[in-house]
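Hey team,

Filing this mostly as a record. A colleague (T.K.) asked me to run one chain through the structure pipeline before their review meeting, and I want the input and output archived in the tracker in case anyone asks later how it was produced. No errors, nothing strange. Just documentation.

Input sequence:
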Amino acid sequence: MNEDVDPSKSQGALPRVGMLGIWGATLAGTVALFFLIDACGARLQAPLAASPPPDKTSISGKPDALFHVLVALIAVLVTGQLLARLFRYIGQPPVIGEVVGGILLGPSFLGRVWPEAAAFILPPSVGPYLGVLAQLGVILYMFLIGLELNPAELRERLRSLLAITHSATVVPFLMGAALALYLYPRFSSNDVSFTSFALFVGVSLSITAFPVLARILTDRGIQKTGLGVMALGCAAMGDAIGWCLLAFVVGVAQAKVSGAFVVLGLTAAYLGFMFLVVRPIVARLLARADEMRWTQGIAASAFAALLLSSLATEAIGIHALFGAFLLGTVIPHHSPLASTMTQKLEDLVVVLLLPAFFALTGMRTQIGLVSGTEEWLVCGLIVVVASAGKIGGTLLGARWASAFGWRDRLKLGILMNTRGLMELIVLNIGLELRLISPTLFAMMVFMSLATTSATAPLLQWLEPKSAKIA
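Output structure:
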């Protein structure tokens, strides 16, 4: 008996009105449950805020700063590429090797076994410079992710996509908010409100790494199957929801709750402006220029629009990368502009600029802060809750939508549990805003690597024996 059901043929499983009612009820229930969790957390007391450590990454003004930045980039680039090849050889996504390379060069490993070499390759004085390069790299990377989104491929399976994405976002979000009740008194401080902390933990457990997932599907040759298209669609839609939630969290954290709804209103207005005004204008201009040649003038205009969009979201009170991602989504996926910019930017961003982000993450990740059996058990608890929420939420949504058989539902849940680089971007934002402590940051980085590296082995384990032999 064939268990795999084409979701496009099962759209009549639930009437449209019934689906809308269920979505509305689950949304209302999610809000109610979060407020219940928030009410419980409001009575918790976190430790007193420690005085901020001296800024060891301030610009020193030494003339050899550029030298050290170049050395750091070369070291991270070479180490990351070597480890990426090693991880690809053992069946893991190469991005894990790139991230591990940055961590190994930081205080967690090289700083312990060879402090002199670590001080030479990644001295604290290069932090601000790497930070600027990392921000630029992430902004361009999120722009490329926006260009990769193709809404046309999702329309045939829209109702199943909505059901699965809805459940795969709500369940881990609520589980993360509930986990915050345990984490807040132990790994936060009283200058961070429980509301901001719980929202951030919930969002961080809801993230799926769309680009890493795409690479895994391509490596396994299933990106064009029903399961592959559904996984890509759910990941893309889930990431879009996740970025919107993160924008709200940033607004709450920066506006101290009172002005958060102003930030949220401005964000909604900007979203409407981009999709209702900018997108039709861009589509009309590109339709008239099918044979448009790539010139420096066109490149300058595109980059100016990218920077303006990033500047607008930064001015609103959310992160600049949201503006870059939004601009990418409003450019038609199959347009010559999208394909040309992807070709010209992808290698520069992925190979040269993102290593700066991995180096910065490595400098910030101090695995040594996770010490003792209790803290490692907490780290394991975070991994279990994150995996259970994402896989369980996906299974619930797929069952709700009557999509696929049980084996493919489980595969979809495992794929949605992939986090990778997108999780690291979210965690770095949380650390910059002081929403999470360095210890919790290290735990979350470990969770991101653990859930991503588990994807390929679990998928292989679920393959039928005949497929494994073949």
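Quick notes for T.K.: The domain at 64-290+305-469 is CATH 1.20.1530.20 (Na+/H+ antiporter like fold). The chain is about 75% helix and 0% strand.
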